[in-house]
Amino acid sequence: MRRLILASLLATTLPSQIALAGPATKEQLLTPPAGARHYTVSSVAGKHGDVWQWKTPDGKLAYRMSMSLRGWVTETDEVVTVGPDRRPRAIAIRGFTDSGDATEDFSVDAGGVAHWKTAVDGGSAPFAGKRYNTYGGPALSGELDIEALVAAGDKGIDLLPMGHASIRVGNPVQIKGAWGTKAVKLAFVQGLGFAPAPVWLDEQNRFFGYAGITSLLPEGYEAAGPQLKDIQDRTTADMVRDVAHRFLSPANRTPTLVDHVLLFDSVAGTYLPDRAVLIADGKVANVGAAGSVAAPAGATVIDGRGKTLLPGLWDAHRHVGGDDWNLLQNVATGMTNYRSPGTMIDETLSIFKRRAAGDLLAPDGKVSVIIDRKDPLAAQGALTVLSADEAIAAVRKIKAAGMWGVKFYTSMTPAWIAPAAAEAHRLGLHVHGHVPAGMRPLDAVRAGYDEVTHINFIMMQAMPQEVVDKANTAARLEGPARYGKDVDLDSPEMKAFYAELAKRGTIIDPTLTVWEPLMTSDGTAIPPEYAPFASISPPSVARGWKIAGYPLSDGLTRDDYRKSFDKMVQLVGKLHDAGVPIVAGTDGYGLELVRELELYQQAGLSNAEALQTATIVPARMTGMADRTGSIAPGKAADIILVDGDVSRDLTSLRHIRTVFLDGYRLEGASLRQASGFSGEPQ
User: Fold this and answer.
1) Rounded average pLDDT over 382-402
2) Which residues have CB under 8 Å from 604's CB, separation 6+?
3) Fewest CB atoms within 10 A around its CB: which of 100, 215, 311, 414?
4) Which domain holds residue 108?
């Protein structure tokens, strides 16, 4: 349930999450005057927010943003002083995002030195010919930077605090809206993220909008969002097709023998030293003792000494769709399979079709589709319904499309869950999801859930009723953050809860790495999920990973939130000890997966047990254990070879030497380079 925040295109590619003391309140922020330019934030589920722009009486540019995504609120404003060269010489951002204080200040002094301050960083540097890249602020304010990138042409722009960006502009297309037909152009900004970022320009190459699952477009043109998204998705598909063809070549599918290697047996949960594995024709052809397996003519032989061979990793909470480049990066970090707990049907079918044709380099996976009640707090990208009958019809639509499961969301009416889940089970679909407001997790399980996603919803079993009743708002985090530290995990009630989950075989998808940065970070360091990748990632991405943590309230301290997170980690251990199946998922980039496994070790799982949650357990959950999730003759060659001894240190999983995907032998360093990394993670 990671929140999608529309940041400025020249700001960080991740949500603005600033938490300084004393943010400006909503009432203290600027009020847009009549006639201000008006943009909206929208999705197929409806409108989520507004952004305005106008000029102040003294000639400055002003912006105001007001947005709520399923209860995650952003209220910010920004005032920009533009110099004679059209570069901002002063920027003042106020307000708060869903994660705290958004205060940010930038200025250039008389000596030409730039100064900036946010909740997570601050500094000074010669302004020279550079341009300040804001950490946050209203989404529309990025239009100034788009204008500058277009003017700069191929040479691009050097940025402060670090980085370089450029833009490539495409051909115009026609769209219709309330103010008539417009010609708009798809452009891609490069240098800010791991991959080119799409943005739409008008006929004069000025910023027009952003299209995606959630779009930022001029008022009156919201209906064009899906059309624009489809165009940019097809354009991106053309880009990644060439990359896929380069890797998925016949030369990379010749037989491979990995000899004298440490092998992880995911079924037994043990490591086998000095083994040999032969891969041929896309499958595991033979497994035996080192030196006992002959390499066929023309085979590539890899000396496995000092390395570990494992089944490819699973991310059981990876929302695919909308970013083909991220799928490539997933492969680069050792992910050969995923379970998406929410992707739109059309995007899923596109991914499956292009992957099968060899036009998309991506893990293989199974997909659920979200169903939610039609409501302002409905999930973006969900099939929205207004009755139990409509929920059942949505389930049938998901089955007819060939999907694997249904995911119910937090605004669903509780009484609709049981009949919709029963229909899903009749059709052979997996049932999982967030716990709807007004229900506790055990209520959802008894109504038909096979799986509960996110550890905060498991903690909801012990929350006060007022938190449970508002679980479709920010209360789903704020409640566990406030009360979690005081929950007695060994109470008779909680033990009975674990026992019933175990008896029913209910699966838990904790996504601890969603909550660790929010609850434990204080802005002084990059969270451990991302720190190993910081030095090899674009500067804007690495800067965005450094967050100040979820805002504190009601006299609570950061240590209180950390204690509540510790209880979440302990809760995973209690569930595991009771026999409840755990699957590892990130609800993020996928980069967070190894940290997720580390946290399971902290919870009390052994090294091998933690690794099973990202190999054989999700393979069994999805019905794919007959072909993946373990290394055995006849199974698909979805395998990773890593430098180091994983049995001693799970972080060795980040040191990918080779990925075998459907039997293709893909070199780790080349995959990292193609997916936007500049080297190997720490």
Assistant:
1) 98
2) 573, 576, 577
3) 414
4) 26-244
**Does the structure show a pLDDT above 70 at 575?**
yes
Residue 470 lies in a domain: no
For the chain, the domain total comes to: 1
Considering Cα of 346, then 673, then 12, then 239, what sign does the dihedral take? negative
* Strand intervals (E) in 121-163: 122-126, 131-132, 157-160
Task: Please name the helix (run of DSSP H) or strand (run of DSSP E) that holds residue 567, with its range, or none.
Answer: helix 558-577
HSE-CB of 521 using CA atoms within 13 angstroms: 31
Average pLDDT over residues 109-132: 96
Q: How many CB atoms lie within 10 A of CB 244?
A: 22
What's the CA angle centered on 48, arms 47 and 50, to 5 degrees?
95
pLDDT in tens, 370-389: 999 999 889 988 999 999 99
CB under 8 Å to 45, separation ≥6 — which residues? 372, 374, 378, 379, 380, 381, 382, 384
SS3 606: coil
Measured between alpha carbons, how far is residue 355 from residues 236, 238, 312, 358 in Å? 14, 13, 17, 5
Kindly provide the residue ranges of all beta strands, DSSP E only, lying in 312-410, ordered along the sequence: 313-315, 335-340, 364-373, 383-385, 405-408
> What pLDDT digit, counting tens, does each position of 44-53 carry?
888 999 999 9
Longest dimension (CA), the chain: 82
How far separated are the first and last CA of the chain, in Å rounded? 27
In whole angstroms, give the CA distance from residue 203 to residue 169: 11
**pLDDT above 80: residue 231:** yes
Q: Give 503-562 pLDDT, tens digit per residue.
A: 999 999 999 999 999 999 998 999 999 999 999 999 999 999 998 888 888 899 999 999
Asked if residue 423 belongs to a domain, the reply is no
Region 63-70: mean pLDDT is: 92
Residue 678, token pair as written in the block: 């500049």
Length of the chain: 682
- Contacts for 341 with CB less than 8 Å, ≥ 6 apart: 316, 317, 319, 368, 370, 405, 407, 432, 433, 453, 509, 585
Q: Is residue 655 part of a domain?
A: no
| pLDDT at residue 17 greater than cutoff 50 | no
C-alpha to C-alpha distance for 314 and 418, rounded to whole angstroms: 29
127 occurs within a structural domain? yes
Q: Token digits for 222? A: 């919201």
